[in-house]
Amino acid sequence: MPRTRTGAVWFGICAAALIFVVLIVFMLQNTRGVRVDFLWMDGSLPLALALLMAAVGAALLTMVVGAARIAQLRRLSRQRP
Length: 81
What we know:
single chain; alpha+beta; two-stranded antiparallel ribbon; 2 helices; about 70% helix
């Protein structure tokens, strides 16, 4: 059987659901509060939330750098004959 887009979407949804289950279990097991100091902000929040925020921030930074590199490569490919 050839692979289809519907099959790929179904696989992606199943993988995302599994990741969300693992994330929920992680967050439920790490509810202890921790103190966080960042620049001028400080406060207390659950450990899982602090780690999740750090991971999302790192992912966003990675996407920005990746998008800049893709734009740079596209510009270079248009300039070359």
